[in-house]
TrEMBL record:
Its cofactor is FAD. It comes from Streptomyces cirratus. This is Acyl-CoA dehydrogenase. The lineage of its organism: Bacteria, Bacillati, Actinomycetota, Actinomycetes, Kitasatosporales. The keyword Oxidoreductase applies. Residues 259-383 form the Acyl-CoA dehydrogenase/oxidase C-terminal domain.
Amino acid sequence: MDAAFTAEQDEMRRTLREILGKRCGPDEVKAAVRTAAGYDHELWQQLSRQLGLPGTAVAEEYGGVGCTPADLALACEETGRVLLPSPLLATAGLVAPLIGALGTPAQRSALLPPLAAGTLTAALAVPGPALAIALALTGDNTLGEWSGGGRAGGVQARGGEDGGWRLYGEAAQVLDGHSAGLLLVAAHTGGFARSRTLLFLVRADAPGLVRTRQATLDETRPQGRVQLRDVEAELLGGGGDGGDVSGVLAATGRTAATLLAAEAVGAASQALSRTVEYVRQREQFGRAVGSFQAVKHRLADLYVQVQAARSAAYYAAWDPDQGGLALAQALEALRLTAGEAIQLHGGIGFTWEHDAHLYFKRAAADELLFGPAHRLRAHAAQRAGLFPARDAAPERTAV
């Protein structure tokens, strides 16, 4: 294993950091999240045209760059540094891999090129706060309860005599659900006895589709509520069975966890850097705050946390099966670093408008949406077989 970055990866990091440094200061981020879409559309187009960012993990035959998940994780570390509000995670991290894995040749040819070019954005619509379970990050996604369980609630799919599908129901807390041009909706079909979760494609202009933006703790991750009122939909994969939905969702979840871990590492690193810079300049009792030993110890502990999380994220980029553990460590590092940043900025840090709160909100919101960390670790341990099943009979030992 060669853990060194290639010259191309270093150049991508440098170029991306340069662009974001000019266009993504705290004031620009706050202005972007208050637009209707929740992000800077012009900047998104620049990142798409100049760097091919949304097509990083899309195969070249569909207009993508054809890179590895490590390249996209490297980009996410840079976008995380500035808390870039963009459709990158929902489009390139969630929907594009699902279409690539489950879509028919016609669906892939029609949808992946515009997704890779950034001209079409997409969102994965999962009912309620069940995204972490749907992606098999905090629990088993094969049971199906996360999408409605075949009973009332969630989203239901009904097949017609003409072979088409109609969707009914609601999904809240959908990342970029209010603005995406394409929705990939998880819905139950088959009733209670033959209940099964399938994925369906829904265009933004479909009759009966109602979308509203929701108020969120972290405005840099805009979310929407999606209501489906007898909406026409296309089954992803066709053929009536939709493929191994739970397995592909779990694989996508592991890669998405790696991207989220890289984002959290970038955010934690930037929060720490800004805090170090502040305590070097801020004086108290005639000397810089950062010169006090207690402050140095706190910053040193944070540095170790961030570097450990970075190592875990880089390893997960090489082995996505470790994505859940890397995400748990990165989220904890971001939460601790953002909290200490507020503390060490003193009175100004406690003002709600200070930039440190942007990082604290990202840490809290990501744990609510994709965690929490202890459940990420518990599920990873269960998958690895570290603990026996609860219903297993204990072994008898001779006395």
